[in-house]
């Protein structure tokens, strides 16, 4: 028998373990709204990301991986504000009440939700094409918020992890990128390990929550890289009326990216690709040592890639010392 | 030129007036997340509803009306918790960046958002079929929350406004209802005024925020009627392990409903139709006079339609005094 909406909510969301107890969650699924008790010394952070089948992930993708990607990209926005995950809500439309799909989706969500102590507290489910709207709530002390504003000329620009994997993963999955045929894997270069790494980079990006909280005392501004470094760093530049100078040879790439792509393609993927979900932060010179030490303690790569400069433009210095303008263009969703 | 995602956000959402200042909203659109400062004496209420074109509203519907319906059904969930609107977020997917559609949608949202002092503070926009996920945030004092739990045997059951208009409106719009051909307008019975009324009932349901806040001190439980009285009252009955007895002849119907439909169809629309967005509350006998006075002060109809009884079943008493079981079935979204 096809389960009703209420049966789906009960079986896969309310009683699947996803709604585990969390301090501050007074009431979760089961009434007309959830009730949250926000600590008096914290601000509530909210961010919503919508993922559409065929646009943000391939049709017929593993529902557990789709779930993890959907929640991870939202948690990445909390990292971008240096917030601690609090809870999330889910607006799910799907073509039919498919038990196997729902079980996979729910179990994928559960794993990540537990890992980040971020229970499901409500949402809506209805019929429609597969469309996943997640809103995450986070908590942050007012003096520890990481924002896009705050960068000053002379600040150093850092990124976490490696860049470009998101777009290279799209190519490795055989999916279209905005680069068209020019972003193709070098034939035979990718090992099975490389492909597994890229697959995980796409479906299971690691939200940089712990790193962001460690860095928060030392950064002047920050953002997560969801639409490519050029576009997202561009948001920081515009928010502060400043320019940027990137050492392109310093951009961190994964072994998989280097094996599968030319350096030029790695750079394009990093600058314009999107889906990396790494942090980009700016740090005043006097705070760089402290920021680097804080990052090192988390074990996550933290690479200085450039500096904030006067003006409003973004430039890159190539390995040969030549400088070129970098269009602060982001991945276009339309 | 097709506007980019960022241009759409700026033009139609951030700078359209939708993001007006609101006490407690520290940061709205423009960073990786919104920042809210929740008053220490209030709980935060959150509710999310997703509307899909072709499922929840007709294809090609007026975007301003679609917007108002999408926000109104969410505000109705805040009313169901007796919460004051705080702010909302929007996850919008649409097939193409259509300026005329976006302008209409934005202006429709603005009117309702202003009326309820509930600014837009963030969200996401992307390509996809037309799908509107809205999450509303509200504020409520812990001792003033209206919940589904709390109803006791002997409590009286009330509803606001009139019932059945949502389903009858669907029929009047020529759209399919779950009742099939049996829910048809009596030929020639509907005047243009009746059709206008029903059209507004569907697209512009009035969230019962003020009524809910007025009633909150006196009710034992409450819910909003989005899936039909039988189903939504059924949630209250199950939450409390009690039964209900409805005086079917007391169900309030609008003039338009009475003109367009037989009494039997009005009753079916009220019990099983959905989309009414009226409140259903239970009130202890000793509080009935106070509740009725509080409701009267708001000018909104408030009708006693039955009582909570022992057991777990819902029954209805017909005009002739005969009693029949009412299946506590709700509108099925799958």
Notes on the protein architecture:
- The structure is a homodimer of 334-residue chains.
- The first copy, chain A, is of the alpha+beta class and 334 residues long.
- Chain A has two domains: 140 residues, 60s Ribosomal Protein L30, Chain: A; 170 residues, Phosphoribosyl-aminoimidazole Synthetase, Chain A, domain 2, CATH 3.90.650.
- Chain A has ten helices and 13 strands.
- A seven-stranded mixed beta sheet of chain A has the order 8-10-7-11-9-12-13, with helices on both faces.
- In chain A, strand 12 and strand 13 form a beta hairpin.
- The longest helix of chain A has 18 residues.
- The mean pLDDT of chain A is 93.
- Strand 2 of chain A pairs antiparallel with strand 3 of chain B, so a sheet runs across the interface.
Write the topology of this structure.
Two copies of one chain form a homodimer.
Chain A: H1 5-14, E1 25-27, E2 34-36, E3 43-52, H2 63-80, E4 84-94, H3 99-115, E5 120-127, E6 131-140, E7 156-160, H4 165-172, H5 192-203, H6 209-215, E8 219-225, H7 229-240, E9 243-247, H8 255-260, H9 263-272, E10 278-283, H10 288-298, E11 302-309, E12 314-317, E13 323-325
Parallel strand pairs in A: 4-5, 9-12
Antiparallel strand pairs in A: 1-2, 3-6, 4-6, 7-10, 7-11, 8-10, 9-11, 12-13
Helix pairs in contact in A: 2-3, 2-6, 4-5, 6-10
Main sheet summary of chain A: 7 strands, mixed
The DSSP helix count of chain A reads: 10
Strand order of the largest sheet of chain A: 8-10-7-11-9-12-13
Say how many strands of chain A there are. Answer: 13
The CATH architecture of the largest domain in chain A would be Alpha-Beta Complex
CATH topology of the largest domain in chain A: Phosphoribosyl-aminoimidazole Synthetase, Chain A, domain 2
